[in-house]
TrEMBL record:
<dbReference type="InterPro" id="IPR016040">
    <property type="entry name" value="NAD(P)-bd_dom"/>
</dbReference>
<keyword id="KW-0520">NAD</keyword>
<protein>
    <submittedName>
        <fullName>Epimerase</fullName>
    </submittedName>
</protein>
<dbReference type="InterPro" id="IPR036291">
    <property type="entry name" value="NAD(P)-bd_dom_sf"/>
</dbReference>
<feature type="domain" description="NAD(P)-binding">
    <location>
        <begin position="4"/>
        <end position="332"/>
    </location>
</feature>
<dbReference type="Pfam" id="PF16363">
    <property type="entry name" value="GDP_Man_Dehyd"/>
</dbReference>
């Protein structure tokens, strides 16, 4: 099968491409290497996902990306340096390839920066996503997986969070763009018969995790003996999900889409093991053999107090089965971090 993966040079996307290629599929990756975090990290992600080792002499962003495009091209992999906000640019790619399924991961992903740059979040996460659906309509593509987020639950009081809970009260622009994606996706499903999954990921971690996310940020600062910004009293909690389990959930959803039609489903992909910030930090301290230097700060606006996934629907519908607990997952993350 030929997959179009957007955001394929990011954290989750690079793991997904690695998996799809191993399974013998062809992959088209669309990524604009945006500056939310260092583009060099995304170049490394792509090389790792393709199993390539390259002595990369980083020079200038545009040159580096063009070089990456040339060395990463193969019979079953094509990388496009392309912004999803540019519909004409996307249209050329859709014209040149016969796409069986789209897995849309490209987004501006941080919660806190979305408060600073809400309009840009709307442009990428909402308009960019609509551009893809418009092209699905034009080119008759009927299978679509979209990355949503646990953040749509806001400060939901009922736990665990279930897909039937009301999600009308997001607390950050980022969360609101993800909720908009779910709603607009339903419109395109209804009007144009696009079979669709909206996958609500719960804090994903593991090798290549985004450098802005807490596990990665804390690991780096502890290992460098630097102060860590510690927001709140440590009782905020997250349902952390290991990257391999998320990839398993995406692949199983993709297989379900291939076998079924008339599909529009929202599912939680979490681990259902909730860890608070204090526990997370002490796990990292133990793994690194070092104590953290905490700088206590008040809770940040936009941050939810807790996430906790009910994954019954994902288990029953697609056979999602997360197997990596937090201890094992963080061990693998820290080993990767120390090796790189
Ligand atoms: N990592 C998590 O814990 C988590 C949790 C919930 C939801 N998600 C969602 O999963 C998806 C992937 O997240 P990630 O953690 O891998 O993030 P990431 O930032 O590592 O990956 C996103 C990729 O999208 C690309 N991108 C951004 N704007 C683009 C644009 N305008 N055009 C083309 N490409 C663009 C980036 O360059 C990046 O490579 C996102 O949609 C995110 O919102 C992630």
């Amino acid at each position: 099968m030929t997959y179009l993966v957007t955001g394929g040079s990011g954290f989750i996307g690079s793991h997904l491409i690695e998996k799809l290629l191993k399974e013998g599929h062809s992959v088209i990756n669309i990524d604009n290497f945006d500056d939310f975090y260092d583009y060099k990290v995304k170049i490394k992600n792509t090389l790792e996902s393709l199993g390539k080792k390259s002595e990369f002499e980083f020079s200038q962003k545009e040159n580096d990306i063009l070089h990456l495009i040339s060395i990463s091209k193969s019979e079953n992999h094509t990388l496009y340096f392309q912004d999803i906000r540019d519909k004409n640019g996307l249209e050329k790619i859709f014209t040149d390839h016969k796409i069986d399924q789209i897995i849309h991961l490209a987004a501006l992903a941080g919660v806190r920066p979305s408060i600073e740059r809400p309009l840009e979040y709307e442009e990428v996460n909402v308009r960019g996503t609509m551009n893809l659906w418009e092209l699905c309509k034009q080119f008759g593509i009927k299978k679509f997986i979209c990355a949503s987020s646990s953040s749509v639950y806001g400060n939901n009081e009922k736990t665990p969070f279930s897909e039937t809970d009301n999600v009308d009260k997001p607390i950050s622009p980022y969360a609101a763009t993800k909720k908009s994606g779910e709603i607009l996706g339903h419109v395109y499903h209804g009007l144009y018969g696009i079979d669709m999954f909206q996958l609500r990921f719960f804090t994903v971690y593991g090798p290549r995790q985004r450098p802005d996310l807490a596990i990665h940020k804390f690991t780096k600062l502890i290992s460098e003996d630097k102060e860590i910004p510690f927001y709140g009293d440590g009782t905020t909690a997250r349902d952390y999900t290991y990257i391999d389990d998320i990839i398993d959930g995406i692949v199983k959803s993709s297989q379900y889409l291939e076998k079924n039609s008339g599909v529009y489903e929202i599912i939680n992909l979490g681990e259902s093991q909730v860890i608070n910030l204090n526990e997370m930090l002490s796990t990292l301290e133990t793994l690194l053999g070092k104590s953290a230097i905490r700088k206590n700060l008040p809770m940040q606006p936009g941050d939810v107090t807790k996430t906790n996934a009910d994954i019954t629907k994902a288990k029953n519908l697609v056979g999602y089965n997360p197997v990596t607990n937090f201890q094992n997952g963080t061990k693998k993350f820290v080993e990767w971090f120390l090796r790189k």
